[in-house]
Amino acid sequence: MIRIMTLMENQPSENKALKAEHGLSFLVEAGGKRFLFDCGSGEDTLYNAHRLGVDLTRVDFTVCSHSHYDHAAGFRDLAEQGAGGGCLYTGPGFWETKYAFDGVKYTDLSAGYDADFLKEHQIAHRVCEGLLPLAEGCWLVGNFARRTAFETIPPRFVKGEIPHTVTDDFSDEICLALQTSRGLVVLVGCSHPGILNMIRTVHEVLHQPVYAIFGGTHLVEADEARIQATVTELQTMGLTVLGLCHCSGSLAENWLTCHSSLQACHMAVGDCIAFE
C-alpha cells in the first residue's frame, strides 16, 4: 500500500486548522518506509503535521526535490526539532546558491543551510545522480534528458556567486517514482527541467507506464496550447491521474476540468491519496 498526504501546499483545504503557504511537502508511506518528499519553507510544515497527528521525528528520511526555499528551507526547522530522519536525499549541486534576478537585484531563493549544518545535526547526505533506489518499488530519478523544445527555464533563475552568476539549469532537481499495480506514481516538486522531460526520463529508465503524477508541474506560465500538448504527450506514457498543485497554475487546472479525460484533482494541505 502507498499513501501520500500533503503536509504543505499553497492552498488551504476543508481542514481549516491547517496552514497554507507557498511551498510543497508530501508525507509518503511506501516500500515499508515513511518519509518526506520536500519540506515546505519553514516551521508551518511541522505545525500541520502536529495538527494531523503525524510525528515527523519518526520518519526514516527526507527527500528534497531541489534547493529552492519553498521546497527545502523547512528542513532546517525539521532538523532543529530532531525531525525529518537521519538522512537527506538531494540531487547534485544542491548547495549552490540560487537567485531570482530581475536585471538589477538578486533575491536569494536558496534553502538557507549547508553541508556543515547536516554534520552538526548528524544527518547523512546522499545524492541521486540518475536512478537511486530508496526502498522496494521506490526510486529517485534525476539527470533528465532535455528534449522538449518548448520546455524552457525562465532566465530570471540563476545560480552561483554574485555578480558572476550563471543560468540555473536545475541539474539538482529530482523526482520520486513509486511502483503500483497500475504503473508508476510520480511525485514532482517544481518540474523546472520540464514535466515532459522528467516524466519521459522516468518512463524510459524504469520501463513502465506512468499512471499518476502529483505535485508542481510549473505550468503556471504556460498557455493553453502548451498545456494541451503536455497533457496529450503525458497520456501516451500511460497517464490516467493528475494531481496538480503548487506551481501548476489555475489555467492548467481549469483546462483539465473542461477539456481532459484524465482524473484530475488539486492536492491541497491535508489532502491524501492511496494506491495498492
UniProtKB/TrEMBL annotation:
InterPro entries: DHPS-like_MBL-fold (IPR041712), Metallo-B-lactamas (IPR001279), Metallo-beta-lactamase_dom (IPR052926), RibonucZ/Hydroxyglut_hydro (IPR036866)
Domain Metallo-beta-lactamase: from-to ranges: 22-82
GO molecular function annotation: transferase activity
Alphabetical list of PANTHER family matching this protein: METALLO-BETA-LACTAMASE SUPERFAMILY PROTEIN (PTHR13754), METALLO-BETA-LACTAMASE SUPERFAMILY PROTEIN (AFU_ORTHOLOGUE AFUA_3G07630) (PTHR13754:SF13)
Name listed for the protein in its UniProt record: Metallo-beta-lactamase domain protein
Species per Swiss-Prot/TrEMBL record: Subdoligranulum variabile DSM 15176
